[in-house]
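Just curious. Protein, please.
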Amino acid sequence: MLRGVARPRPRPSTPAVLPTQLGAPAVRAVQALTVAPAPAPRAARTADPRFDDLSGAYDAGIFRKAYSWLGEVKDNEIAALKAELAGGGSGGGAPTKAARKAARSMEPERREGLQTLLSQLRQQRTEERVAEGVRATLAQRKAEERARVAGGKLPYFPKRRELRELAAGERFKVLEGRGEGAVAKALLKRRKKLAGKERKGGATAGGGSGVYAPFSARRGVDAAEGR
């Protein structure tokens, strides 16, 4: 008999006899049938139409028109805060004696928070009105300039200094219309800011010696030193 060859069976019912020279059959690992899990539900996507690409290109004019009602909401909030600080309640009614007493006994933290919020809202509305006035004035000037160009004149483009002066004039009009000493408060705040800049500039010009020098003098020192 040949080596490595199974012996013939005498009868079909007899088990086959395998020689020892044959290797054992390889054990095959049966892969279990796995079912893919169902995909998790996608979270709802929230999109802000102001910043979503699907809303198209940003147009400042359309944006202001679409959200123009926010100005009225801020004005109502300002009136409600002023009434609450004065003791008139959030409804804006006339302050009663009990309401004024409650306003005087208000916790300092709450009063400070209301005053801060009121100041922020006032500042926002002031800047919005100033920007609106500047846009209206510039639009009028552009229309007049187009008419001049159509008549044969060269176009004129305003300088940055002129734009700053225009914004300052509009801010003065807005503060003057608000009353309550708003102009005086704004000027006082501006003076304090400029004085702080001058003091800081004086310390720099003095080389840290503590000698005060005006801001204009500091510029003269810098020019003399070739800075």
